[in-house]
Amino acid sequence: MLWFILRRLLSALPTLFVVITVSFFLIRVAPGGPFDLERPLEAKVMENLNRIYKLDRPLIEQYLSYLGALARGDFGPSFYLRDFSVRELFAAGLPVSMTLGGLALCLATLVGGAIGCVAAFRQNSAVDYSATALGVAGITVPNFVVAPLLQILFGLTLAWLPVAGWGGGSWRNLILPVLTLALPQIAIIARLSRASMIEVLRSNHIRTLYSLGLPSAVIVRHAVRSAALPVVSYLGPAAAALLTGSVVVETIFGLPGVGRYFVEGALNRDYTLVMGTVVVIAVFIIVFNLIVDVIYAALDPRVRYD
Q1: Res 139: pLDDT
Q2: Residue 120's domain spans which residues?
Q3: Tens digits of per-residue pLDDT, 153-162?
Q4: Residues 217-230 as b or e (16 or more Cβ within 10 Å = b)
Q5: Band of the pLDDT at 304, cuts 50, 70, 90?
Q6: Which residue of 108, 120, 125, 260 pairs with 197 in a disulfide if CB–CB is 3.0 to 4.6 A?
Q7: Is residue 44 part of a domain?
Q8: C-alpha to C-alpha distance for 93 and 71, rounded to whole angstroms
Q9: ∠ Cα 188 192 194 (to 5°)
Q10: Cα torsion at 149, 153, 156, 160 (round to 10°)?
Q11: 77 phi/psi in degrees, rounded to 5
């Protein structure tokens, strides 16, 4: 297993290199630049800005310089938020987004998995139909509708929870944004686990366990272990998306995460901020896909990477 992990990490380096290279040149192909404003700057000011940020150099030289800085862990200065470097922005915002995403993912996995399993064991019953309806509603209703409703109900009407703000990571400030992030994932995981559990319950090895007269707890444990595989596959990209922030939720609840940087970097042509975002997301996807493969081997004895 250790050799497999090392091999996967080494093979991920060329993928990361291609992603960085393609993103670097694509963002510069588009017309415009980070200092193009509605009211154009004076030619001398523009020349000085390009010189300071090394944008006056040949593109290949900028590319090689960026790769060298990135190898040292330096994402460069932000062109839009000029008092901060990209690393400083991520250092401040990424823990907030990871806290929200991690809690939302844990909540969605536990609640969605439980709902899906219960619905599968009571297939075609009122419980099953209710779980399916809730799953459809959770997928179709967007976050920008759910978040204001939760704010109005629990924040303004009942006055139980704050409607916005980080509050130093207080649990009261986390409940509404975490719930908003988790609801769509609960619906998706519930549908995945229900479909997978129904298929597993009809499989030969579960029928054999029933015929041997084993206790229900043992059968359920074996069934859940097999049914968890599709859910684990989904959790890889879902974790990368949640942990890197949700711009809608963070904007509505006024949270200092990295979600808003994704949009600001693209709109303001902040090259370094966009590139930093691409690198972070790519690394998260690679790491979580590797974790999924390791969990696969732990859940399914037929999977071997030796």
Answers
A1: 79
A2: 86-191+234-299
A3: 888 888 888 8
A4: eebbeebbebbbbb
A5: low
A6: 120
A7: no
A8: 22
A9: 115
A10: -130
A11: -80, 155
Q: Is residue 33 part of a domain?
A: no
Structure tokens at 7: 């091999």
Q: Does 185 map to a domain?
A: yes
187 vs 265 pLDDT, higher one: 187
**Residue-wise pLDDT tens digits, 105-130:** 899 888 988 888 888 888 788 888 88
Separation CA 159–CA 64 (nearest Å):
54
**What is the chain's mean pLDDT, rounded?**
81
CA–CA dist 150, 153 (Å, integer) = 5
Token pair belonging to 290:
């590797």
Rounded Cα–Cα distance for residues 218 and 133 (Å): 30
CATH code at position 159: 1.10.3720.10
Residue 18 is assigned to a structural domain of this protein: no
Nearest CA among 225, 229, 269, 256 for reference residue 98: 256
Q: What is the 3-state secondary structure (H, E, C) of 63-77?
A: HHHHHHHHHCCCCCE
Give the integer Cα–Cα distance in Å for 286 and 12: 7
pLDDT digit string (tens) for 12-52? Answer: 888 888 989 998 888 887 776 666 665 666 677 767 777 77
As given in the structure block, the two tokens for residue 136 are 């459809």
Tell me the pLDDT band of 286, cut-offs 50, 70 and 90.
confident
The arithmetic mean of pLDDT across residues 176-188, rounded, is 89
Q: How many domains does the chain have?
A: 1
Which string of DSSP letters, residue by residue, matches 106-152? HHHHHHHHHHHHHHHHTTTSHHHHHHHHHHHHHHHS-HHHHHHHHII
What pLDDT score does 29 carry? 77
Instruction: Give CA torsion, residues 173, 174, 177, 181, to 10 deg.
Output: 180
Closest-CA residue to 241 (of 271, 210, 265, 277): 277
pTM: 0.80
